[in-house]
Amino acid sequence: MKATRELCERTLAFLEQQRLPATPRNYALGFFHCWGTLPALSQAIAAIIDGGVRVTQQEADSLYAGFLGGVMGESPTPPAEPATPGTDVLRHQALRLVDLAASAQAVTGEFSRELAFRLEDFSEDDLAPLRELLIATLARSQRSERELAATTAQLEQMRSKLEIAQGDAERDALTGLPNRRGIEAHLARACADGEPRVIAMCDIDRFKSYNDRYGHAVGDRVLRTVAASLKSSLDDEFVGRWGGEEFLLVLRGDLAAAHLMVDEARLALGDRHFRLRETDEPMGRITFSAGITTLPPDEASIAAAMERADALLYQAKEQGRDRVIAG
Q1: Which stretch of DSSP H or E encloses residue 295?
Q2: Which member of 59, 184, 237, 245 is catalytic?
Q3: Range of 215's domain?
């Protein structure tokens, strides 16, 4: 009885921490998370709250539908869509759901096999209620595994269709910017038209510290913020995400003019002060360093220009970060 009361208290405390109302569905979600009998659910919640981020009601509804709809005797229902979903948001959610479903499927399968193994430890006459509970939990887990496998297949199909329809093969799902493939295609076109171009390799300063201190969800927000700031500062110039915390810019004009543009973009980002959305804790300034060089007119020299820009970026880091070095 005491253990049950403590579990109920932990459930209510969890809902209070997440600022979720104690509705029957939210309570069931918190109860199974605190109880720990559905590791796949707990893993999904842990991924959301990593770094102090709270579970939103929309995320709670999605988790309940995906993990507890079958357990509670309900038919799984898809999460409610936003009133006016943008294609970028829908596309990014689909990509995240594929990864989540695949991970949850594997964890649930391991949990099922572990339960089956542990049932051999109980006799027919000993701890009969616990044995019945384990059998019921095993059945629910196996059913969830089958449902997750089907969901994964459906989401993979959705991702393929979205990639074809929206051109995701050349676009980064997180920031909406061209990805490395899109950057390489743009560089090839830029060399072909013969117009003078400059490339800049930018890297967010101390990005790892944001992930380590606040979690990857906040790190993703930092990436989106820097991407939006660069696009805003550079108007019609090309901005792409090269990978990780690196961005590549392709600017029209000569080296001096491009240097000034990138430095103004650096100052615009550094003038902003950021706070953690959930706690209002100051995050301080977000800055980047950059190396900038001219882009040769022939496609065969692109790799050499990229190496020069990367070396100049390294110099900017060595000289104290938050600066642009041209060469």
Answers
A1: strand 288-295
A2: 245
A3: 180-326
Please state the separation of Cα 120 from the chain's center in Å: 41
| 214 and 120 within one domain | no
Are 289 and 64 spatial neighbours (Cβ–Cβ below 8 Å)? no
Per the annotation, the verdict on 145 as an active-site residue is no
How does DSSP classify residue 109? H
Same domain, 163 and 190: no
**Residues 114 and 185 both lie in one domain:** no
For 13, the token pair is 């405390």
Is residue 227 a contact partner of residue 176, using CB atoms and an 8 Å limit?
yes
Backbone phi, psi, residue 37, to 5°: -85, -10
Number of domains, the chain: 2
Instruction: Check whether residue 70 and residue 129 sit in a common domain.
Output: yes
Pair 141, 16 in one domain: yes
Closest CA to 60 of 86, 29, 34, 35: 29
Q: Which helix (H) or strand (E) holds 158?
A: helix 128-166
Q: Quick check: 98 pLDDT over 50?
A: yes
125 in any annotated domain: yes
- CA dist 43 and 57 (Å) reads 18
DSSP codes of every residue in 171-212: B-TTT-SB-HHHHHHHHHHHHHH---EEEEEEEETTHHHHHH
Rounded to whole angstroms, how far apart are CA atoms 292 and 72? 58
Other beta carbons less than 10 A from residue 126's beta carbon: 9
Sign for the pseudo-dihedral over CA of 287, 293, 294, 300: negative
Distance of CA 311 to the CA centre of its chain: 29
- Per-residue pLDDT reduced to its tens digit, 223-272: 999 999 999 999 889 999 998 899 999 999 899 999 999 999 999 998 88
- Give the residue from 57, 15, 53 showing the smallest Cα distance to 34: 15
pTM of the predicted model as reported, rounded to 2 decimal places:
0.51
DSSP at 171: B
